[in-house]
Design goal:
eight-stranded parallel barrel; alpha/beta
């Protein structure tokens, strides 16, 4: 170990400051806001109109969120609630609306408000997510929040990056620091407390340095075992630490091994929480939700 005298230590620290200021001490450190309160650890589910086969109704989803959170003491119930899905080269909102952009489409009925109203009442937190395709994400955020920001259950918005400027295949385009900051600013123009989550399975699709206000969700699947899942998800956690990360799991491609577990949501979640200290979200996916949380 090398020891410095006080003058040498000061000189070394000063040199490091100068190198950093000149951009010579490696890439910039991720930006963060030390005053921002941390996200509350949460557990729940991912919901889409196309995932579960049919929608059993708001009461069912509230129950899933509560049952998931009960498996992990100290967590809040929470949902990733998808309100737009890729359609053609753009996106389709599951509520009525209008836009001059031909890439933005709307449904005839509101498929979300009843559930969000119930979540307001029971304290289940919600991230509203879009699958943009080639549609402009900032406009999608404004459209979505113009309709739903009145719901206190909404804590932020999310973008599935695999469908960002991608519509034929779930690949996506890397999100730059500037783009992430613009999306976050769009959300915070509706509520300054909102955050933005970005979802993908490849860390290099995420903004390289910006971290303030961001939450990083991994939705990888097709693992050979729980050990392999833990290893890959742990690498995701390290890539963004100390920023918050979350994980979607329970995909059909992984059922060959999670189907053998005594309590798949809990057994997987416990492993991830133990291995990845910056985990703040665990979400069972709606593709298999009826198998774990039967409709009654």
């Amino acid at each position: 170990m090398i020891h410095f005298s006080a003058p040498q230590w000061f000189l070394s620290l000063s040199m490091l400051f100068l190198l950093t200021a000149c951009g010579l001490a490696g890439k910039p450190a991720p930006t963060a806001a030390p005053t921002q309160p941390p996200l509350i650890p949460a557990a729940g589910f991912r919901f889409s109109q196309y995932g579960p086969g049919y929608d059993p109704g708001a009461d069912y989803w509230a129950g899933v969120g509560q049952q998931m959170a009960a498996k992990f003491p100290g967590t809040k119930s929470q949902a990733i609630w998808i309100v737009s899905q890729v359609s053609g080269q753009g996106t389709f909102f599951s509520f009525p609306g209008a836009s001059d952009d031909l890439l933005i489409h709307f449904g005839m009925d509101d498929q979300n408000d009843e559930a969000l109203t119930l979540f307001d009442q029971i304290g289940l937190d919600v991230w509203l997510q879009v699958e943009p395709g080639n549609a402009p994400v900032d406009q999608l955020i404004h459209i979505m929040l113009d309709r739903y920001s009145r719901h206190p259950c909404v804590i932020g918005v999310g973008v599935d990056v695999e469908w960002y400027q991608s519509y034929d295949e779930p690949e996506g385009k890397p999100v730059t620091d500037e783009v992430a900051q613009a999306w976050l600013a769009a959300a915070r123009s509706h509520n300054p407390a909102y955050r933005l989550f970005l979802k993908h399975w490849e860390a290099n699709m995420m903004p390289p340095t910006v971290r303030e206000g961001l939450y990083f969700v991994d939705d990888s699947q097709g693992f050979a075992s729980l050990d392999e899942m833990e290893s890959e998800f742990a690498a995701w956690g390290r890539a963004f630490a100390p920023a918050p990360v979350g994980f979607q799991y329970g995909y059909i491609d992984d059922k060959r091994w999670w189907g053998e577990l005594a309590d798949p949501p809990k057994d997987i979640g416990d492993r991830l929480l133990a291995a990845i200290p910056n985990t703040v979200g665990l979400y069972w996916v709606d593709f298999t939700v009826f198998q774990i949380f039967p409709v009654r």
